[in-house]
Amino acid sequence: MNDTQAERAFTLAEGLWAIYRKLKRKLREQGEQSNLRPAQVSVVLRLHKDGPATVSSLARIEGMRPQSMSAIITSLLEAGLVSGSPDPNDRRQTLMALTWKCQKLLSDGRAATQDWLTTIIQQKLSSEEQQMLASTVELLARLIED
């Protein structure tokens, strides 16, 4: 790879990173239907991805003190977004899980995000541009393949 190719790759990476941050923010704005703080959102998404967990394991995974995680869990309990049940492997522990209300909130948020993105693609991009975007999505998928 010569210097020009390396510079182009660097510029592409820089531009891609900037677009990623902006797109992520826009998608989050479209899907948000709650007033959750970022730490609460992180815990909800962790429970959604990994399933039920104890407060101490959530604290460890999220890199925070158990007392801080307890405060987050308490606020989520009060909002009806998580519930606790005894850990079948250790009855002294409580497993925190998402409630149906929270799962519906996540589902509705994903649907709102998908609807917004579909609409904006249709409104702002011509048929040819949509085809170019489809090719770009394929290239991006190749970048993150293992």
Protein architecture, described:
The chain has 146 residues and is mainly alpha-helical. It has one domain: Winged helix-like DNA-binding domain superfamily/Winged helix DNA-binding domain (Arc Repressor Mutant, subunit A, Orthogonal Bundle). It contains six helices and two strands, in the order H-H-H-H-E-E-H-H. The protein has helices spanning 3-31, 38-50, 55-62, 66-78, 100-124, 127-144; strands spanning 82-87, 90-98. A two-stranded antiparallel sheet has the order 1-2. Helix 3 crosses helix 4 (66-78). The longest helix has 29 residues, at 3-31. The model has no long low-confidence stretch (mean pLDDT 92).
What labels describe this entry?
mainly alpha, two-stranded antiparallel ribbon, 146 residues, 2 strands, Arc Repressor Mutant, subunit A
